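Entry 0007
Protein: Transcriptional regulator with XRE-family HTH domain
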Amino acid sequence: MRDIARARQAIGARLKELRLDARLTGRQLAARYGWQPSKISKIESGKQTPSEADIEAWCRAVERPDEQADLIASLRAMETLYAEWRRQLRHGTKAKQQNWLEMEAETKSFRVFEPCVIPGLLQTGEYARQRLAQSIAFYETPNDLEEGVATRLRRQEILYDSSRTFHFVILEAALRLGMAPLDVMFGQLDRLMAASAMPRVRLGVIPMQTVLPFTPLNGFWLLDRRVVLAETYSAELTLTLPKEIKQHERMFDLYAKAAHYGPLARRLIASAIEALSQLAEDSATT
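Output (structure tokens):
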């Protein structure tokens, strides 16, 4: 995959920079560890993937132990950096939801930003059914809708675990966009009202008129301080580099500061419910 090749090349290029900064030739570095000289050139050109032991030895030889953590994180992220949706969903939505469940089971602190949809951990069954049905239709994956919905709802059991904390930030647009039929949206907004009062759950809503601190390009999930998950139309990104995690933490903090919480957040949800009620009345009279 081209993305993996680019990631391998980036690692190789950085290792080459470190070697040159240390004024070591490739032969000198190879001789220090009994490597074939060709191994150095292959790693630096991105034709061979270094092992974690290779990176540790390399950083030791160039006297740059401070580079080791980022390079190893890049290596670990390489295979999971870009995972195609069709490949992930080839066994249906249940398998994908099960993967999320397993990742969440390892997580203590959840920070979630979503601009247009209700986060999966807060979705009702009917709202989840709308989202997963769209995915099945668009990506032409096996139709295991009911199993996928059931697994997504099972993920929500973690909300009642006293050892976890949850901080959700959504745009008010997520409350008002036509992401589901009116009756489904009524139930979903009512669910948000209840979720906003749950222990260990902090729900922030950014009002429509707020001047946003940054363009909301996509939603993302911060699982502890170890991984960021972000979705595009064609892929799910799994980001593990420390600098990438820090960037998303900064972005989350910006959105969190712009959000309303507690009674103010519930007022925004209530306003959206009133708007839906008016829309339902208008539809009934036309």
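Curator remark: The first strand starts at residue 82 and ends at 84. The chain has two domains: 2-78, 82-89+100-123+158-285.
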